[in-house]
Design a protein that fits this description.
It is a single chain. By secondary structure, this protein is an alpha+beta fold. The chain has 5 domains: 85 residues, 2-Layer Sandwich (Gyrase A, domain 2), CATH 3.30.1360; 163 residues, no CATH class; 99 residues, Calcium-transporting ATPase, cytoplasmic transduction domain A; 156 residues, HAD superfamily/HAD-like (Rossmann fold, 3-Layer(aba) Sandwich), CATH 3.40.50; 119 residues, Calcium-transporting ATPase, cytoplasmic domain N, CATH 3.40.1110. 48% of the residues lie in helices and 20% in strands. Strand 3 and strand 4 form a beta hairpin. Helix 12 runs antiparallel to helix 14. The longest helix has 36 residues. It is elongated and about 110 Å long.
């Protein structure tokens, strides 16, 4: 008893799980990881079922609960060991390595046309023979799969649309109306084939991304004091490796270029058909192909953390998700099955007409209601993916459609997210602005911080002349330090120079304050213990930011809110230029989620657009989170929509796709109910024979499916 109590206390101390209850063959844990709404239950269950000794696992995300069933309670020790090390990254890694990674949503098996061909052949053959026994044999043989499926479903799931369909076929065979039986069978099989084909097509994007990764890559290694290119397995690559990629090869990592120029085809990741020129300092993503040139890439993300693998997991989770409108359609379809059956029974009792009864059974709502909606969602997810817009599922499309308030975190969304040097101010007459820029670039060129990249780029535009310096010391969150001609050079933040290096700023406070009031970011340069000058950097507004905001309004968005850490004066200038409705200035990153909650409490449907770096809480807490490409970390899938192309107009495209998809689904829904109600009424009053009813009903279903496959287009 004492031992059990100690164990329980120990588990309570875990920051990842708590053991709530256990018996000799069952244990229940509260898992902290399940508080993250983006964790896929199915993936987690499959992962945990791999634990040796565990017979089954049940996951309840709403209760943050996991229940394990086992034969021996000793397995709890292994379970708790796994739970202690469990993380989203582990799940993601397993999904890329194990066989279950795509089992739930993608099949390589092509849809079979055999049953459609069989029933169609029977429809023709039956009309060519005169012998009743032969007619029966042909019809029964072709209809056998439908009759068996219907019988099995009756006993396993009760009254369903498949039971109605098989009943209608059986009654037609019993009445020796072989034309009606074969017509119904042929239409049903054709509808089934089109459904399978649609699902297969809608998974094309995932299958393309799930293709084998680059198995080997050339990596620079130091051997006997010399840097040599070595061919290694991709799984052996580590963060910080320098990967060399030549013409025709696929980039195996996410990272940035440290040397070389190349033309890179990114169509598989961003949807952009034109190759993009990449050079030193640019970022590259896995799955893209070097068409011309040669690159040396510093690996930032490898293996399961690369964009290709992250997207694979992202879409895999999304394709299985059911939206509320989809669940509504399914529930309505299930409720209408007994209605159709009751109407058929009542009709027979009143008229004693088997033909009329068979006609009514052919006209159910289920097929079109259940099939057209998920097909439309999948079609949109796939199309969006090919355009570089990753949508996490049907629920995300619904949420994006209903969003009436868009909140933008200014940096990296409304702005380019890329600093540019606007001015160089020298406080020493012996140093020209160009010399000051060259000095700074010489020290900063070894680093890939956005400020360093902006300085180096500006220096190159002005004919960069490298200044010899000693070894550069990089001080995290402060800046860099080196020596030139025996004198110290310090470059970085004001805090670094003024507080740490004790450099006097008092003489230049007026100039510095004016630049800061104008919303500029300042880089400070100290030389030989004095403040040598400043470099002003700006993050420019995107050229199409205002146009994109105007287009969002046309799509039904009522409120546009901008969040920024800028001063109120600077923020108001930007807000007026863009035409946003509300601006919140001088914010800390932690305040974003609070503002989102505040807007939601006012009854607004909020979409938050952020760069994904420090925006995770806001992305998760909003109704729909949209992550821009540059800082987006979809390994954690905090966003409902993640953009792979660095273009704010993609936000508008996503909203337009969502609006048009929901309109398509509503039109399909209304058409299904309206047309099938008319068919049902006609069959009930004896206006349609079973053949006509089958053709009308299944023709409607196929038409709606084809409409869903076609999907929607964005202008």
């Amino acid at each position: 008893m004492q031992e059990h109590k100690w164990k329980q206390t120990k588990n309570k101390m875990s920051d990842k799980f708590v053991k709530v209850h256990s018996t000799p063959k069952r244990a229940r844990y509260k898992l902290d990881l399940l508080k993250d709404s983006f964790v896929d239950e199915n993936l987690l269950r499959l992962y945990l079922e791999k634990i040796k000794g565990v017979s089954s696992v049940r996951v309840n995300q709403k209760a943050y609960s996991v229940i394990f069933n086992f034969e021996d309670s000793l397995v709890c020790e292994e379970i708790e060991k796994e739970l202690s090390s469990l993380s989203v990254e582990n799940l993601l890694k397993k999904s890329s390595e194990d066989e279950f990674s795509c089992i739930s949503c993608v099949s390589d098996e092509e849809p079979s046309f055999k049953r459609t061909a069989l029933t169609s052949s029977a429809l023709v053959a039956e009309r060519l023979v005169q012998n009743d026994l032969l007619k029966f044999a042909i019809t029964a043989g072709a209809s056998y799969p439908i009759l068996i499926d219907g019988t099995k479903e009756l006993f396993s799931e009760g009254l369903t649309s498949r039971v109605l369909e098989s009943s209608a076929v059986a009654i037609s065979i019993y009445r020796k109306d072989y034309l009606a039986a074969n017509s119904a069978s042929a239409m049903l099989e054709l509808g089934e084939y089109i459904e399978e084909t649609t699902v297969h097509k809608s998974d094309d994007l995932l299958k393309e991304l799930a293709k084998p990764n680059v198995e080997e890559a050339w990596v620079e290694k130091e051997i006997d004091g010399k840097i040599t290119e070595v061919l290694i397995k991709s799984e052996d690559m580590k963060i910080g490796d320098v990967v060399v990629v030549g013409v025709g090869n696929t980039i195996p990592v996410d990272g940035h270029i440290i040397d070389g120029n190349a033309s890179v085809n990114e169509v598989s990741m961003t949807g952009e058909a034109e190759p993009v020129t990449k050079q030193r300092g640019d970022r590259v993503i896995s799955g893209t192909i070097v068409e011309d040139g040669r690159l040396r890439i510093w690996a930032e993300y490898v293996g399961a953390d690369t964009a290709t693998q992250r997207i694979k997991s992202y879409i895999e989770n999304s394709l299985n998700e059911k939206s509320s409108v989809q669940l509504k359609a399914t529930k309505l379809a299930d409720k209408l099955v007994p209605v159709t059956l009751g109407l058929a029974g009542t009709s027979y009792l009143v008229t004693r007409d088997f033909e009329r009864m068979a006609s009514i059974l052919q006209a159910d709502y289920s097929c079109a209601l259940k099939l057209a909606t998920p097909v439309a969602f999948k079609s949109t997810i796939s199309k969006a993916g090919h355009q570089g817009i990753m949508i996490k599922g049907a629920k995300s499309i619904e949420a994006l459609h209903s969003a009436d308030t868009f909140v933008f975190d200014k940096t990296g969304t409304l702005t380019e997210g890329e600093l540019e040097v606007e001015a160089v101010d020298s406080f020493d007459e012996n140093w020209t602005p160009d010399e000051l820029l060259n000095l700074t670039a010489s020290a900063e060129e070894h680093y890939f911080h956005p400020v360093a990249e902006a300085v180096v780029k500006a220096a190159k535009r002005k004919g960069f002349i490298h200044m010899h310096h000693e070894e550069v010391q990089f001080i995290v969150a402060h800046g860099v330090k080196t020596e030139v001609e025996g004198k110290s050079v310090v470059i970085g933040s004001r805090h670094f120079l003024e507080d740490d290096e004790k450099i006097d700023f008092s003489k230049y406070k007026e100039e510095i304050n004016k630049s800061l009031e104008d919303g500029k970011t300042l880089l400070y340069i100290g030389f030989d213990g004095k403040l040598l000058g400043t470099i002003s950097l700006v993050d420019r507004l995107r050229k199409n930011a205002k146009e994109s905001i105007d287009r969002l309004r046309q799509l039904g968005v009522k409120n546009i809110v901008m969040l920024t850490g800028d001063t109120k004066q600077k923020a108001k200038m930007i807000a007026d230029e863009l035409g946003v409705d509300e601006v919140r200035a001088q914010l800390l990153p932690t305040q974003k989620a609070e503002i989102i909650k505040e807007l939601m409490d006012e009854g607004k449907k909020v979409a938050f657009v952020g760069d994904g770096i420090n925006d995770a809480p806001a992305l998760i807490s909003s109704h729909v989170g949209i992550s821009m490409s540059r800082g987006a970390d979809i390994a954690k899938a905090t966003a409902d929509v993640s953009l792979l192309k660095d273009d704010i107009s993609a936000v508008v495209e996503a909203k337009e796709l969502a609006n048009k998809t929901m309109k398509l689904i509503n039109n399909n829904f209304n058409a299904t109910v309206g047309i099938n109600s008319a068919i049902l009424a006609g069959a009930t009053f004896g206006l349609f024979s079973p053949v006509v009813t089958a053709v009308l009903h299944n023709g409607t279903t196929i038409g709606l499916l084809l409409n869903s496959i076609k999907g929607v287009e964005v202008k």
